[in-house]
Write a structure and sequence with these properties.
The longest helix is centred in the first third of the chain and has 25 residues. This protein has three domains: 214 residues, FAD/NAD(P)-binding domain, CATH 3.50.50; 111 residues, FAD/NAD(P)-binding domain, CATH 3.50.50; 116 residues, FAD/NAD-linked reductase, C-terminal dimerisation domain (Enolase-like, domain 1, 2-Layer Sandwich). It has 14 helices and 22 strands. By secondary structure, the protein is an alpha/beta fold. Strands 1, 2, 3, 4, 5, 6 and 17 form a seven-stranded mixed beta sheet that branches. A five-stranded parallel beta sheet has the order 8-15-9-10-11. Strands 18-19-22-21-20 form a five-stranded antiparallel beta sheet, sandwiched between helices. Helix 1 packs parallel to helix 9. A hairpin with a 4-residue loop joins strand 18 and strand 19. The structure holds flavin-adenine dinucleotide (FAD) and nicotinamide-adenine-dinucleotide (NAD). Nicotinamide-adenine-dinucleotide binds next to helix 6 and strand 18.
């Protein structure tokens, strides 16, 4: 039987990064993945394929609607080759997952393919082509998550689908009804709207992306409405039925009226659930809570001292970069180091266009906590860079402490804010004040100038360009 210092179950961004860091720190490491390709949800059916389709559909929309204003004329009709778009997405996924094979090889990590289940706290049985058992001093559970649904919905994977199927459709829907106006619903809803589908988003709460700052919800909804997406907020879905190729979604609105929507596809995007099916955590005595999450302490250690858990399968935001940080943290703890994660500084991004990005506290959270704060906001339309590119939607908003001026939250909507948010993370990591940001030189012309201007607005209410 092979023995290891560490065995990682699951090869998503949490698991594979944990394995690399363990190997870098000199531990003999194995990784177990039930699918044939490494990379987990993120690389196979999550972050990467969704961004590939967002980028492709963005190019298509630009060609259809915006090339002309830039003086680019395309003779003849611009045609969509959807099959090719999906094939390209698959090729991007393929390249990316192969990259993880390379990294495992480079770091001398043994890869086992097959479902891993605990025999006990130090032995894992792997049900692959052949059954084998490995022994490990320490085990990291990184089994991730799966789409969740509502109790009365049957996901048939053809017409009533999750994000996984929505990334590999064979046709553009005529009318896609999206249940849930969160990250997945908006990203994939926007993809199909750009490709010509009618898209209706049915959301339970009174705003989309309800966990982000409400100013972002408002701005994104305004822009997506202009793009033709229809929104039905404060709607409680009560039934989803399929008849042949038609799907009917029934919901009750705020006034308790029953409304129904008929389309050819229904995307169910109401969140994800931690995944531990087949893991047999009970054989090792590992506690799983009532929400299906593996319970961990601040060191991401389960109730069994040599077993740790990271990523979507534990509490907290279900984000790839959060899982990665946790993977590194556990590896470094195992190596006797004292790492730390500031969960308040894990940014959240929605990759629609305009993009939406946030870090720290929202205005709603500061109000609820009774924190006195100042707010500075700067519109993207006032930037030369935005006018040059034609991306004038959005804003940057900086919230800082009323007394100390320390930056408490930064919320953005606009072109490339997914990249821009890192400036805010860096500033907050070093506990910068809004004035610190305001006094830094920002290259001109850039979208980043909106961060400086919002900081000037938060510090002394003296933005320069509005
Ligand atoms: P996962 O990536 O879910 O990996 C877990 C792996 O464990 C899987 O490969 C699974 O097969 C394997 N596994 C499970 N049980 C076993 C077992 N018993 N034995 C062996 N293997 C097992 N996050 C972002 O930060 N940015 C984005 O842009 C983004 N876009 C997304 C788009 C979509 C459509 C979706 C669905 C998700 C997106 N996410 C995004 C979320 C991101 O994918 C997850 O947060 C991330 O993948 C979690 O990583 P993980 O390592 O915890 O688990
Ligand atoms: P989500 O939590 O982002 O959004 C779910 C939405 O569904 C919420 O707005 C919620 O109010 C709504 N909802 C819940 N029950 C409902 C009901 N009965 N009827 C109508 N609406 C209902 O979840 P998601 O969009 O499914 O994404 C799952 C996870 O994947 C998220 O936690 C997210 O972190 C991750 N993800 C991240 C990215 C990214 O980082 N860009 C992209 C995709 C997914």
């Amino acid at each position: 039987m092979s023995t290891y210092d560490v065995a990682v179950i699951g090869s998503g961004p949490g698991g594979y990064v944990a394995a690399i860091r363990c190997a870098q720190l000199g531990m003999k490491t194995a990784i177990i993945e039930k699918y044939n390709t490494l990379g987990g949800t993120c690389l196979n059916v999550g972050c990467i394929p969704s961004k590939a389709l967002l980028d492709s559909s963005h190019h298509y929309e630009d060609a259809l609607k915006h090339f002309e204003e830039h003086g680019i004329e395309i003779p003849g009709e611009i045609k969509l080759n959807f099959k090719k778009m999906i094939e390209r997405k698959s090729a991007v996924v393929d390249q990316t997952t192969k990259g993880i094979d390379f990294l495992m090889n480079k770091n001398k990590i043994d890869v086992y393919t097959g479902l891993g289940s605990f025999k006990d706290a130090t032995h894992i049985e792997i049900a692959g082509d052949k059954k084998q058992t490995i022994e490990a001093k320490n085990i990291i559970i990184a089994t991730g998550s799966k789409p969740s649904t509502l109790p009365f919905i049957t996901i048939d994977k053809e017409r009533i689908i999750t994000s996984t199927e929505a990334l590999s459709l064979t046709e553009v829907p005529k009318h896609m009804i999206v249940i849930g106006g969160g990250v997945i619903g908006l990203e994939l809803g926007q993809v199909y709207r750009r490709l010509g589908a009618e898209v209706s988003v049915v959301e339970y709460m009174d705003r989309i992306i309800p966990t982000m700052d409400s100013a972002q919800s408002k701005e994104l909804m305004k822009v997506m409405k202009k793009q033709g997406v229809k929104f039905y907020l404060s709607h409680k879905v009560s039934a989803v039925e399929r008849k042949k190729n038609e799907v009917t979604v029934t919901a009750t609105d705020k006034k308790n009226n029953e409304v129904s929507f008929t389309g050819d596809y229904c995307l169910v995007s109401v969140g994800r659930r931690p995944y531990t099916d087949g893991l047999k955590a009970e054989n090792a005595g590992v506690k799983v809570n009532e929400r299906g999450q593996i319970e961990v302490n601040d060191h991401l250690q389960t109730n069994i001292p040599n077993i740790y858990a990271i990523g979507d399968v534990i509490r907290g935001a279900m984000l790839a970069h959060k899982a990665e940080e946790e993977g590194v943290l556990v590896a470094e703890i195992l190596a006797g180091q004292k790492p730390h994660i500031d969960y308040n500084l894990i940014p959240g991004v929605v990759y629609t266009w305009p993009e939406v990005a946030s870090v720290g506290k929202t205005e709603e959270q500061l109000k609820e906590a009774g924190v006195e704060y100042k707010s500075g906001q700067f519109p993207m339309r006032a930037l030369g860079r935005s006018r040059a590119s034609g991306d004038t939607d959005g804003f940057v908003k900086i919230l800082s402490d009323a007394k100390t001026d320390e930056v408490l939250g930064v919320h953005m909507v606009g072109a490339r804010v997914a990249d821009l948010i890192t400036e805010a993370v860096t500033a907050m990591e070093f506990r910068a004040s809004a004035e610190d940001i305001a006094r830094m030189s920002h290259a001109h012309p850039t979208y980043a100038e909106a961060v400086k201007e919002a900081a000037l607005a938060a510090t002394e209410n003296r933005p320069l360009h509005i």
